[in-house]
Design goal:
Helix content is about 15%, strand content about 35%. The protein has about 160 residues and is α+β, with helices and mostly antiparallel strands.
Amino acid sequence: MADLRFGEEVFDANQQREYRAGSEPWPAGKHLVALRNSDAKETKAGDGRMLELEIVGLDGPCKDRVHTERLNLWNKSAEAVEIAKAALGMLCKAVGLPVIKDSSELHGIPFVVDMRVEKRTDVQDAYRNRVVGYYPKNVSQKTSAAAAAAATTGDKAPWQR
């Protein structure tokens, strides 16, 4: 048995936000999100460091759910670093901060993330999310990357040509 009083208050489940376990992946597609936290951490292999981004859903089916994305910015693999820098560049542009000194500058600014669902190779019958794009919040969550690019360049999207 455990006493669940907090000072003079009792625990009231009606006062708590809804919690959804992170085991089920987010639906594929575009979601309005913001960074809640970020930190540089060692890789599992111990051969580098990564920027760990805590992305929280702001509306829809993923509201208040958290996805963790890892960018290998400091790694012995030049290709991994190049991919991570490209992703961080997209994120910075999506929130309107193309030049930053600290990842905390990106916190709390809404943007759209394009999420894919892929099968995990390490766990049978399990799936996980992978971020494939970051876009400004004013880009419709139903708008494709090609249409978003066309909107900024003035070109027509491929299907409109």
